[in-house]
Amino acid sequence: MSGPSAGLTELPGSLPAPASRRRSFRRGPLPVLIAALTWGTTGTAAHFAPTAASPLAIGAVTMGCGGLILLALAGRSVLPLLRAGRRALLTALAGALCVAIYPLAFYSSMAIAGVAIGTVVSIGSSPVFAVLIERVLDGSRLNARWAAATAVSAIGVVFLVNGHHGAGDQTQSLAAVAGGTALGLVAGATYAGYSYAAGRLMRQGAASRPVMGLIFGGGAVLLLPVLVLTGGPLFQSTSGLVVSAYLAVVPMSLAYVLFGIGLSRVSASTATSLSLVEPVVAAVLSVLVVGEHLGLAAWGGVALVGAGVLLLGMSA
């Protein structure tokens, strides 16, 4: 090359140019972070739902109705995926099954064991399950920076929820803790599962819109019976209808369109780690809107999650 501006080529192992790094961040980590920000609003939104609405109903309306919207947005673009062969269909079916299980396990975990334990186990375990899935199915190696960033963020989540004090906090029985923890692990595994399934289909050449439409639309079909059985209180009042519409459109449909865009650029393990920002948003909104309290440890947790997410964003 005749000069520094002539055909800049990266050497093996060199850091990408700043402009390239910014583009990479905007196309991968940033959409996932925006999605996680919207997911963090679900708890505050659910606070305004009728008191008779169960966690199962809230989970089913969020992923069920939202999944149908994603399927409608995808439209006929899902047809090539349906004809893509047995392996692609099995991947989509596994993803849809995870989509159906996740909200039922997640919201039930919080209802049984409390928000703190439910959040820590469900959200904190998902990156671990994601990297295990990638290791077993793809032979991927553990990235040291991912491990460090995820550990920092996960510790931050623990500090956050343990320093987050709400009016309804109370000591849980051992059985409740055990049951809620088990459901939280199911939620973490299924979140990682549908993230991996979607990412795998995209890596095989499918666009994000049909992939998310097919996987979440399939999960919605599986959730509809649950919504029919439990959704009465949500649909019998104006507040319930408003909350249901918001949950289905914003933290579900819009967020998962963005999540799909991010998954086409980053791995499922990175995406699930980035989504650890969700409980931070939820906790801050609970203070600003609901009137709950964050202690010093919780604010330290916010800082740790922020540091971990920043490290992940820089490495993606």
UniProtKB/TrEMBL annotation:
**Family matches, as Pfam families:** EamA (PF00892)
Record keyword rRNA-binding present: no
Q: Where is this region: Disordered?
A: 1-23
The topology of this chain with respect to the membrane is: Multi-pass membrane protein
Principal localisation: membrane
Q: Does the keyword Transmembrane apply?
A: yes
Give TM regions: 30-50, 56-75, 87-105, 111-132, 144-162, 174-199, 211-235, 241-259, 271-290, 296-314
Q: Which InterPro entries match?
A: AA-Vitamin_Transporters (IPR050638), EamA_dom (IPR000620), EmrE-like (IPR037185)
**Keyword field:** Membrane, Transmembrane, Transmembrane helix
**Which residue numbers delimit the EamA domain?**
29-161, 183-312
Compartment(s) where it occurs, according to its Swiss-Prot or TrEMBL record: Membrane
Q: Which family does it belong to?
A: Belongs to the EamA transporter family.
Q: What is this protein called?
A: EamA family transporter
